[in-house]
Amino acid sequence: MEVLQAQGDAAPFDAIAARYDETFTTSKIGYAQRASVWKELEKAFRPGKSVLEIGCGTGVDACFLAERGVNVVACDSSPQMLNLAIRRIKENGRDRSVRPLLLAAEDLASLQDRSFDGAFSNFGTLNCVGDLHQFARGLAILLKPGATALLCWMGPCCAWEIAWYLTQGNPAKAFRRFRRGGVTARLSESASVRVHYPSIRQLRRIFTPEFRFVSFKGIGVSVPPTYVEYWANRFPSLFDLSMRADLFLERCPGIRSFADHILLEFRRESLQV
Question: Assign residue 90 a region: left if phi > 0, alpha if psi is -120 to 50, beta otherwise?
C-alpha cells in the first residue's frame, strides 16, 4: 500500500507526539498495558484480514498486526503522530500492509472503504470523541456483518488513580473521571482536549443495535497508570507482581471495572444503519 506524508492543520495531540513513545510506548507500564491489549488483537484478527485502526498514534499497534499478516488502515487526526507512524511503518518494512490516513474518528463515514473485517482503537482515543453515537453509526457502516471491534477506553473508575491522588492530597484529580460532561486535559500551554469517561453500561447502549456487546477486560487493574512510572522503576519486583496479578484480575468480575483502561469487544450485527 502506498504511504503518503501526512499534512494538515495542527491538532491537539501534535503537542505530545514527539515525546509519546518515550513517556508511554517504551515505558514499563506502557509496554505492560499494551501487551495485554496485543493478546486480544492477535486472537481477534487473523492473517489476510483487513482492519481499521482509529487513533493509530505512532503506529506501534499497526506494525504489530502487520507483522502477523493483517492489513491495516491506520487513521489518526494528528499530523505529527501520523508522520511518526509513517516513519515507523517504513523502518519496519510494513508499507505494503499498512495504509496511514489522516482522519478523525468523527469522520469515519467519509471513508470509501466499506468492507473491513474488524476495527480497533487503543488507549483512550475514543474518550476524546464528543459524539459517540455518530462515531458508532459511522463505524457500523464500514464493517462487515460479524466483524469484531476491539475498543480500549480510559475506564470510568480507576482504583489506582483514586488512591494515588488522594495520597497526594489532590481529590480533584482523584475523582476527575466521575465528572459529568468530562474534563479538560491540557496537553501543552496552547493545546487541550475534552475527555469523557463513559461507563460500560453507557457504551453498550450507545453501540446498540448496530453492535452486540461480547465482553470486556481490564487493562491495568493492579498495573498502575503511566504517571506512576518511577514507582515501577524503583520497585521492579512489586511491578512484576502487579503484572502477574493482572493475568487474573483483568477478567475478574467487579474488580476488572476499576482498571486504568477497559477493552470492550463488540460484534457487528446487521447492515441496517
Answer: alpha
User: Left, alpha or beta for 64 (phi > 0: left; psi -120 to 50: alpha)?
Assistant: alpha
Return the beta strands (E) in 155-201 as ranges: 183-186, 192-195
Residue 1 is predicted with a pLDDT of 40
Q: Which of 271, 23, 261, 268 is nearest to 121 (CA)?
A: 261
Nearest to 26 by CA among 104, 88, 80: 88
pLDDT in tens, 54-113: 999 999 999 999 999 999 999 999 999 999 999 999 999 999 999 999 999 999 989 988
The pTM of the full predicted model, rounded to 2 decimals, is 0.94
Block residue for cell numbers 461480547: 214
H helices of 207-273, in order, are 229-234, 236-249
Q: Tell me the average pLDDT of the chain.
A: 94
Which residue, 35, 33, 29, 36, is CA-closest to 230?
Answer: 29
Residue type, 266: F
Strands 50-54, 143-154: pairing kind: unpaired
241-250 — which CB contacts under 8 Å span 24+ positions?
243/32, 245/221, 246/32, 246/36, 246/218, 246/220, 246/221, 246/222, 249/218, 249/221, 249/222, 250/36, 250/217, 250/218, 250/219, 250/221
- Domains by residue range for the chain, with CATH: 14-268 (3.40.50.150)
CA separation for the pair 74, 132 (Å, rounded): 19
Residues in the chain: 273
